[in-house]
Amino acid sequence: MSDQTDLLQGTLDLLIMRTIAPEPLHGWAIAQRIQQISDELLRVQQGSLYPALHRLEHQGWIAAEWGASDNNRRARFYALTRAGRKQLTTEVSKWERLSAGVNLVLQRT
Amino acid sequence: MRMFSLLRARLSSLLFRHRRESDLDEELRYHLDCETERLVAAGVNPEEARSRARRTFGSVQVVKEESRDARGTTFVEHLIRDTRHGVRRLAREWKFTLAAVTILGLGIGVNAAIFSVINAVLFRPQAVVNPDTLVDIYQNAPGGAPTGNTYAAYLDMAAYTDVFAGSAVTFIPHPATYSDGGPPRQVIVENASASYLTVLGLRPALGRWFSESEDAMNAPPVVVIGHRAWTTRFASDPGVVGRIIWIDGMPVTVVGVGPANHAASMNFGAHTDFWMPLKTIVLFGAPPRTFERGVVEPVFMVKARLRSGVTVTQAQAAMTALGARLAREFPKEDKGAGISVFASRDVRIHPQVDVILAGFATALLAIVGLVLAIACSNLATLLLVRGAARVKEVSVRLAVGATRGQLVRHLLTESVLLALAGGAAGCLLAWWTMRWLSTLDLPVVVDFSVDVRVLGFALALSFVTGILFGLAPALHSTRIELWQTLRDDGEVRGTGQRWFSLKNALVVFQVAVSVFLLAGTGLALQMMAAGRAQRVGYAVDGVAMIETNARYVVNDPADQPRVLEQLLKRVGAIPGVQAATLTRGLPMSPNGEGIIIDGANDASLQTVGAGGIWAGPGFFETLQIPILYGRALDARDREGALATAVVNESMARRFFGTANAVGRRFRTAPGDRPWMTVVGVCRDTWTNDLGDIVDPVPHMFYRPMEQWGQTPTTVVARTTLGSGPLVRAMELELRRVNERLPVLTAKTMAQVLEDSLQVAKGMAAFFTGLGVLGLTLAGIGLYAVIAFAVARRSREIGIRMALGAGSQQVVWSVARGIAALVAVGTTVGLAFWVVAVLVMRVAPVQTSGVANIQLYQPDVDPLAMLAIAAFTAMVGVAASYVPARRAARLDPLVALRHD
């Protein structure tokens, strides 16, 4: 557990939106995808995933729809809305600036 | 776009709350299943996999809660939950709930009831087609204030057909009697032109309105029954059209029934019973010259329908032009004060009267508002006390993580619930009061029903009450130092040592307001006492009167006086009767008249006001009013003889400059009435209205009826035997004269005087009711505060008693606090009252256009104040009796173990 990084406040939203940008995914798949892509470095607290999803939906950045999953069961798929895509772009550039800044500070001191 | 998707997301989450909830369940279940499957695929046995999936997931309930919160629709959901919780809690604490709902119900009920009356009088609109194009027109008095119109001026106005599509004229509604075979009843008759209903755009419910030819001088009289009178007095009988009924003894033919929802030409809730053609006012005693051009009183009201496209401003311009023309052409009749046009929807009764009425309504609402203030502050007291009792509960909830906002919201929901329940109880009370009022036999029929406006008023009051008076206690009781209250000895802290607390202030306020209201009772009683103490100046003991209407048996006006003379002769022959005379209406009720003094140089005496009384021969002897100079009116003052009058002393002094005014002349103001020569001066007397104590001694004059063609209606007699038996004897004689003669009034003079105090009595009852109600509420508040203080101090009291304090000392320590609160409240209330009295004494006359309202100038009455103080002290003792006794009976052992 100790080699896994807890997610920074607010970054979960960014990761969720980035993960579902190519194709709609359901909740469990989003958590799995984030873990896989980050080579198990990032682990999504499953308890905070759903509140985050509902918050994003409430803000109108993602939309949910029931669909059939791989194993042919009913699952709720989340997709980015048009407003969500715009938001993702701003969030990504914000994050890049933040991490660039943090990196600079870490390297130069 | 974003707005839209946002809105949709929120709406759907609110509307489909239940579906959302099951969606969330299913989504989370699916998640757990996926995780379990993954683990099973990785080789974990299914049992173990399921529990591990659950463990990594954490609490499903917390996730659900947070997901719900994230959706942001929680306000409504919380509201529903808080409401459910609040209802449960209030049901459990039903004693508290009952007390609070009763208190608020009384407060809101009294307000809603008074508001219903005001609503019936001032707000309820009349049924009129297209009210936007209807106007009221008034000729102005010399000061510029709108008064009424002369008939000649109405005809001039109606001629403006390019401005008005139609115009109608009415006469002020007046009381009359009617009979449909049975004994005569009091009704309200209104006279209107044939055009009236067409101008309003209404149609009769039955039959027809009277025609132009029926509204002509000397046409056989016809009547349209008001819709309300038709349903109540004629049981909605459709066969009534074509029948003959008797109004003031005249046979009249019913031609129709007025429209439903249209009460009267004046919009203040009173219903006109009978509509009759305008010209029939002559049959009710108006002189025919009222309809001629000349110096006559402007007694007619005019309504007109604007032509389409014509505005009120344009109508006003046209009427201003007419006013100027009238002033030019008839300088004697028209003093050039102009004409005012009002949109009918802005007028209730008359522009001048409306101002007074609105002021009166405001004052009334302010007074009953005080009762509501007491009830509200009482609720606040109760909530505070309960909040303090719930300190532990609140602390525990704060400790386990509830935010202060949540708690405040929770407590507020409860107080709003209470207020709404109180409002419902209040509406019930108001409805009940109004139903009771409707059953009263009032001289005018007023529709007192509770309508949407009243309900809205009560609802608004409850909401404001609940939030305003729940907020302070809610904030107060959630401001808690956790560490202090959770410690076991938390209750010892600050027991009643703080004198200026919110609770105490509220109790003081309640006592003060109640005392102020009770002082209003004192004022009313003072006015009544002043009225009774009035030196009447005429005989009351042994005097009785009977009023009838000869028209019911004799058609020819010339023959009518003979009926009364017959009755007079019979009454004079009753054993014990010493003197008897004739008059009109109730004895000693003067008719206000403008009079002109012959040869007055002083401009202020050109037209002056005085009260005229109709007196037959023997009037002064019967009522034992001494004649100071000259002679009394007697049989010499016949029709055709020189017009004569007797004036009273103050009228002689004021208008003629000398007590001995015999030989001087005066006449009544409008037109060219004959001069009256003063033949006698009598001593000053009071009128028969003891409630009217504002005026100084009234200026009065007495005229013989015969010289003015007036029919007597009343026999007054004085006996050495009791006046009560005399009333019965006179009724018997009346029947002997003619079986069909109606008894309109039969009373002893003492009864007449006592009945004149109705207004003062009503006022006394009103203030007493409010004051006692207020004080009862204040008593409940006091009880709550004291009982709570005793409960909280039980430990301290226990220690004292254990250390040897007697129960007397304990009671005293409790009573001291109450005494202080009551004393402060009483002092404040009385101080406010003294200030109010001083203000009333400084500003005795309110001038408002036509009406001079003189206020009664009260005295500061120390005795009444003492009585009020004693009364509040009694309430204080009653409120503290139970808690003090409980304190005195405390068992020190139990008390020390307490908590």
Write the layout of secondary structure elements.
The complex is a heterodimer of chains A (109) and B (899).
Chain A: H1 11-19, E1 25-26, H2 27-37, H3 46-58, E2 62-68, E3 74-80, H4 82-108
Antiparallel strand pairs in A: 1-3, 2-3
Helix pairs in contact in A: 1-4
Chain B: H1 2-15, H2 17-41, H3 46-57, H4 60-71, H5 74-92, H6 94-123, E1 134-139, H7 151-158, E2 164-179, E3 185-192, H8 196-200, E4 206-207, E5 222-225, H9 227-233, E6 244-247, E7 250-257, E8 270-271, E9 274-277, E10 300-306, H10 312-329, E11 339-343, H11 351-389, H12 391-399, H13 404-439, E12 445-446, H14 452-478, H15 482-486, H16 502-533, E13 543-547, H17 560-572, E14 577-583, E15 591-597, E16 608-614, H18 619-622, E17 627-630, E18 644-648, H19 649-656, E19 665-668, E20 676-682, E21 700-703, E22 714-719, H20 723-737, E23 745-748, H21 749-755, H22 758-792, H23 794-802, H24 807-842, E24 845-848, E25 851-854, H25 862-888, H26 892-897
Parallel strand pairs in B: 3-9, 5-7, 16-21, 18-20
Antiparallel strand pairs in B: 1-10, 1-11, 2-3, 2-6, 2-10, 4-7, 5-9, 6-7, 8-12, 13-22, 13-23, 14-22, 15-16, 15-19, 17-20, 18-21, 19-20, 24-25
Helix pairs in contact in B: 2-3, 5-13, 6-11, 6-13, 6-14, 11-14, 11-16, 11-22, 13-14, 16-22, 16-24, 16-25, 17-20, 22-23, 22-25, 24-25
Rounded to an integer in angstroms, the radius of gyration calculated over CA atoms of chain B is: 37 Å
Distance between the termini of chain B: 62 Å
Shape of chain B: globular
At CATH's second level, what is the architecture of chain A? Orthogonal Bundle
Unreliable parts of chain B: 488-497, 846-853
The succession of helices and strands of chain A, N to C, reads: HEHHEEH
β-strand number of chain B = 25
CATH classification, class level of chain A: Mainly Alpha
| Low-confidence regions of chain A | none
Average pLDDT of chain B, rounded to a whole number, is: 82
Q: Profile the largest sheet of chain B.
A: 6 strands, mixed, barrel
